[in-house]
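User: Teach me something about this protein's shape.
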Amino acid sequence: MMMTTPLSHHLLSVVASLLVAMLLGLAAPARAQTVVVMVNGEPITEYDIEQRTKLNLLSLHKQSPRNEVINELIDEKVKIKEAKRFGVDPTSSDIEQAYVQMSSRMRISVDQLTKSLESQGIRPETLKTRIKADMVWGSLVRGRYKERLQIGEKDVAERVQAEGGDTTQQADAFEYKMQPVVLIVPHGASPSAMELRQKEAETLRARVQTCDEANAYFKSIANAAIRDPVIKTSADIPANLRKLLDDTPIGHLTPPEMTKQGIEMVVLCGRKPTTIDTPKRKEMREKMYTEKYIKTSNAYLEEIRKAAMIEPDSWKNRSP
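Assistant: First, the predicted structure itself:
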């Protein structure tokens, strides 16, 4: 008969603990992959729900109820399948590009966005799946219901009038003809070089009196460029830039601004009153379009969701 010692007891305890830990470790992924609901034959797992809950908490700064998360994931499955039925199926490179653009809008690098997600226990693929669903659904709704989403100018005018009218008089809406110009400053240039370029820009502002003069000067100056003319209305331009253009005499340059390219200015080649649009009308048009889009999108989603195969039966209808 083998005698046990305190040491052997200790070893047995350690081995037992390791076995328990291994079993728990093996059980966790299995539990995480438990299928909660099937949508058109595709599973939504506990892990999917957990991931989306974390993503919503990060983006919305609040805890989403479990039933809302499940419904969100169901909607995405339905949207992606419906879009694919009509040939709207972006490639992985399309999704990656959208992911890059999102990081750019957040003013961070792609690596920083990925690390930010991972620090919260979120896989980048979780965000990419949501990006894909939003991308395909927007394209599908706008493509299938293009005519229904159109906004008539008469309807815009009536809505503006009904909500208090346009406080901006038609004479205050302008069409601007502009030419962007730049004095190029190399990356990493010394402060003295930047100051010299700034002084050059101020000298040109005092000298240029017409667009023709601006073209002649900027085409002859080293490390400078003048772009093709662009035409914008008041509705297309932010209020601070509108004021800047309204304060600039025709043919003159706007105050210089330091950008990544160098010292940039705009030559104002023309400014004339227009009744094409006003900031208020543009704002109202966008508001009305958004209202129509949401209404159309919701009705379409409800229609295809009813036709979808969703199991178990308890998830065929949205929870309140």
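Now, about its shape. The mean pLDDT is 85. Residues 31-143 form a domain with the Triger factor/SurA peptide-binding fold fold (CATH 1.10.4030.10). If you'd like, I can walk through any region in more detail.
User: That's plenty for now, thanks!
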